[in-house]
Amino acid sequence: MATLNILVAVCVAYVVLLFSVAFAADRAARRGRGAWLRSPLVYTLSLSIYCTAWTFYGAVGFAARSGMEYVTIYLGPTLVMIGWWWTLRKMVRVGRSQRITSIADMISSRYGKSNLLAVCVTILAVIGTTPYIALQLQSVTLSFAAFSPAAGAGRSVQSIAIYVALGLTLFTILFGTRNLDANERHHGVVIAIALEAVVKLLALLAVGIFVVWGLEGGLGATLARIDASPIAAFEVSGSRWTALTLLSAAAFLCLPRMFQVMVVENEDESHLRTAAWAFPLYLMLISLFVVPIAAVGLDLMPEGSNPDLYVLNLPLLAGQDGLAILSFLGGFSSATSMVIVAAIALSTMVSNHIVMPIWLRATGGAAMMSGDVRHVALLARRLSIGAVVFLGYLYFRMSGGGTALAAIGLIAFAGLAQLLPALMGGLVWRGATRTGALAGLGVGFALWLYCLLLPSFGPGVIVPQSVMDHGLFGLSWLRPQAMFWTGGMDPLVHAVMWSVGLNTAAFCTVSMLSFPRPVERLQGAQFVNVFEHSQRPGSWTGGLGQSEDLLIMSQRIMGAAEAQEMFARAARRQGLSGYLPEPSPEFLEFLERRLSGSVGAATAHAMVSQIVGRATVSVEDLLAVADETAQIMEYSSQLEAKSAEQARTARQLREVNEKLTQLSVQKDGFLSQVSHELRTPMTSIRAFSEILLGGGLNAQELRKYATIIHAESLRLTRLLDDLLDLSVLESGQVVLNVQTATLDEVLDRAIAGAIGAAPGGLEIRRDPGFEAMMLRTDIDRLAQVFINLIANVRKYCDAGAPVLDIHAEPDGTRLIIDFVDNGTGIPIEDEALIFEKFSRLGDARAPGAGLGLAICREIMHRLGGAITYVPGQGGAAFRVTVPQMPG
Amino acid sequence: MSEPPATGRPVFVARGTYRRRRMVDAAAMLPILGALLFMLPLLWVGAGGGAARTSIVMIYVFAVWTLLVVLSVVITRILGSATDTRREEDEAAEGAPDSAAGSGPDHAG
Amino acid sequence: MTSQVLLIEDEPNIIEAISFILSRDGWQVRSHSGGQDAMDVVRARKPDLIILDVMLPGRSGFDLLADIRADPQIAATPVLMLTARGQRKDREMAERAGASLFMTKPFSNAEMLEAVRSLAPRT
């Protein structure tokens, strides 16, 4: 009993140490000191609550029974951790940006904040975790008993369990519910867990080192011992190996306590980066000596002793009491840290998703008028903690601490793995719906119960032997361990395969067949695209669902009409229609103030944060809002740029359209024009021909009329020539006659052709500077262009004393010739059209079919040059660019 | 006419960014590699045609474990040494400036 | 006294031709070639018949016709419209503007005589 007393003393001392460490850490955090509390190392160590007493004692037992198979329980999490980039990163980001408080909250948030789903997950979590807590209590009890075999079955050891349970409840309530906001980090708890992580690792390593070098005398001897032990052969079934690895990976993601430390308590996303290698390292170290301890234990310990306690009994056997106490502390800390975190995680879920909704519904508006909701919520959480731990204790007492508990670890894993499809599917698939999640969870949970949990109590306890043998209702395909005639499998593998498989199938099928509500779709988008949407954690991403909840609550307090009016006004201020404003900080503050007028500040605060899932608006939040505003501005400037671009495109389209319309009008006009131009000479020709045919004319008349007919025929011919010329030029069948001439020769020819001998009042000013330049091109065609330009000046220049300036300038090998007159020029709206065929400015200002400039453009195009209109030169200004042609 | 890529992601990125992207690939592939390596002992046979020896499997598993830890350290270090994770993704998401802007149809004449 | 025909047309050769045809048939033909001042000429001459070209420099024949129909003193004067464009649209516009007859160029001399005779009773 002396040892037992020492043990109790050590235990108490250790617990006091934990309390003081937690207290100090909480105080440091409160005072804003202790940056080390938020280090990636602490985060990594806190993850070690994955390794419970089940690891500390059970892994060796597991190894003693089935060799290397135990390692799969740690390989799964290792793979998840080193694959953090795939899943954990997203989970943590979503958790932080959505201010998730638990895994039930995560799943319910994803599926439109469905409380039904949250309740389902909570129940599943409680059912899956309670036996696990019982397992921890059992291990502590057993370890006490190991020190005092005589008292093992006695009352004193049994009562230890209740002391432990009470102590843990006290600790958890003290450090886990200091604040209502479940999203706030529990620094005290986390640092205590980190300390415990170190203790259990050191203890297990110490025992391992003692066993290998102390008892066996080195590595070689230990390996020889393993080879000589009953577990020397690696006889692991592939399906179990694979299934257990997958199962542990799934459980690592879905266990409520893991979610608590990994996502909820996460301080900084970048901590994952360290944990990605440090936690696998931790797992490797903690499982490193498991097989040697098991092999040595099998060799040294008497037949029939519990292999789960080798870690404790080997040092005791060797008389190393100090090491044994260290080992005991390791097991103790594994158990306590698990219970603490599991209790916090479960109590958050139970109070948020079960107790509070029931309380709010039960009391309705009445309770909100009196009493402090905040205290109710805290009380609910504290009671939940007590209830969860008590449930575990109850389970422990009722199961009698038998061997049934040993298998419970994997069964709990399998139960919680049912959350995986809904959790992961919700993170990567926008099509996942609430109905689908419920269906999957339901199917998976039912199969898990039927195939694994209920049979685990032993045949005949809950599931009758006849059902085990012949299936439910005598249907052979419903045998719990041979569903759908799949016999001959390991029961665990069988159950996991069918429950998770059909869970996933139901989840996917029902999701595809059902239609999500708007809130679900909104949340789905925010979860799946979390990296695009929430640029930084902490931004206000609360959905409209929260506003809906707030409206419902406000209606209860303020009356429906008034609340709706207020919400609609707030929505309008935010530029939204309908009754649901974004739950922006401003709006929440306003709402809180408005509600506090009716129910008091504390109540209003608690109620709003209960629904929105966060406490007051902190400076950090305001900064986040400022950031978001900046983002929105950036985004809207992008939108502006985009709409400017669209406007540009629209303008271009409009221009093209206008041009087409104008062209169409021009074409109609041209047809009329051609008709007119052809019919007018025809009229004269026909009339005079008939007159001539009629006879009775004198010679003078005959001559006069014949002359008219001749002139009009020439006019017709000219028009037809122009049309033909243009069509030849356009079809590209023109043959160029490349010659060499100086510019002034060409201009002389053109002026002569356009004006003839009579200048008709047009003054032409030439610039002899570059007119001596040699041109090598189709001189006739170029002259045709010049003739056209000069003739146009004669036709269109509206100056009193028309003057045409012609000046030339070389540009590289090209020559640029400008023709500028002193008229009013061409109106801007016509500039785009003057080179089009058949265009005539105005309608009847001057004769001509409007082909001249079109022909010029075609000619210059064939010559490899260009003719353009140059605006803003004082009058009409055309620029002809002539390149030198080869050959 | 060649269409710009619909995603708007730049086709060529700076060397550092490229290296980081490949590290992201490596981070994604590491668990697959680990899973395959951990499954390997299932295929082993012992010297006498029976099962493999637990001691050998143990040494192998812990060696692979160590290797994975080391690789994970290397990859996260390289990922971490570059700028913040998010920034690069934002860049990728925003893509190249729209090349269509500014070029209008040709105005004839 | 012979009936007077006023010919408003800008093509000199066509004026020459119509004048010749009509005067040989015994009509007194006056011509005018501008659009702007045509109304003054019409008011001053008060012709028995107006032959009006659609495309006139300065003013459209349709406008001129509308003015004629709007002036009570001369509104009853028959108007023969000539056009070289020959589109259905022009014919419709002419009818709407109140043209008595519409002819498309080129026409035969006989057609012209017939039209003029039908519009203006010879005195």
TrEMBL record, chain A:
<feature type="transmembrane region" description="Helical">
    <location>
        <begin position="279"/>
        <end position="302"/>
    </location>
</feature>
<feature type="transmembrane region" description="Helical">
    <location>
        <begin position="322"/>
        <end position="346"/>
    </location>
</feature>
<keyword id="KW-0597">Phosphoprotein</keyword>
<keyword id="KW-1133">Transmembrane helix</keyword>
<dbReference type="Pfam" id="PF00512">
    <property type="entry name" value="HisKA"/>
</dbReference>
<feature type="transmembrane region" description="Helical">
    <location>
        <begin position="402"/>
        <end position="424"/>
    </location>
</feature>
<comment type="similarity">
    <text>Belongs to the sodium:solute symporter (SSF) (TC 2.A.21) family.</text>
</comment>
<dbReference type="InterPro" id="IPR038377">
    <property type="entry name" value="Na/Glc_symporter_sf"/>
</dbReference>
<feature type="transmembrane region" description="Helical">
    <location>
        <begin position="378"/>
        <end position="396"/>
    </location>
</feature>
<dbReference type="InterPro" id="IPR001734">
    <property type="entry name" value="Na/solute_symporter"/>
</dbReference>
<feature type="domain" description="Histidine kinase">
    <location>
        <begin position="673"/>
        <end position="886"/>
    </location>
</feature>
<dbReference type="InterPro" id="IPR004358">
    <property type="entry name" value="Sig_transdc_His_kin-like_C"/>
</dbReference>
<dbReference type="GO" id="GO:0022857">
    <property type="term" value="F:transmembrane transporter activity"/>
</dbReference>
<feature type="transmembrane region" description="Helical">
    <location>
        <begin position="436"/>
        <end position="458"/>
    </location>
</feature>
<keyword id="KW-0902">Two-component regulatory system</keyword>
<feature type="transmembrane region" description="Helical">
    <location>
        <begin position="41"/>
        <end position="64"/>
    </location>
</feature>
<keyword id="KW-0472">Membrane</keyword>
<feature type="transmembrane region" description="Helical">
    <location>
        <begin position="189"/>
        <end position="213"/>
    </location>
</feature>
<keyword id="KW-0418">Kinase</keyword>
<dbReference type="InterPro" id="IPR036890">
    <property type="entry name" value="HATPase_C_sf"/>
</dbReference>
<feature type="transmembrane region" description="Helical">
    <location>
        <begin position="70"/>
        <end position="88"/>
    </location>
</feature>
<dbReference type="Pfam" id="PF02518">
    <property type="entry name" value="HATPase_c"/>
</dbReference>
From TrEMBL, chain C:
<dbReference type="GO" id="GO:0000160">
    <property type="term" value="P:phosphorelay signal transduction system"/>
</dbReference>
<feature type="modified residue" description="4-aspartylphosphate">
    <location>
        <position position="53"/>
    </location>
</feature>
<keyword id="KW-0597">Phosphoprotein</keyword>
<dbReference type="InterPro" id="IPR001789">
    <property type="entry name" value="Sig_transdc_resp-reg_receiver"/>
</dbReference>
<dbReference type="InterPro" id="IPR050595">
    <property type="entry name" value="Bact_response_regulator"/>
</dbReference>
<protein>
    <submittedName>
        <fullName>Two-component system response regulator</fullName>
    </submittedName>
</protein>
<feature type="domain" description="Response regulatory">
    <location>
        <begin position="4"/>
        <end position="120"/>
    </location>
</feature>
<dbReference type="InterPro" id="IPR011006">
    <property type="entry name" value="CheY-like_superfamily"/>
</dbReference>
<dbReference type="Pfam" id="PF00072">
    <property type="entry name" value="Response_reg"/>
</dbReference>
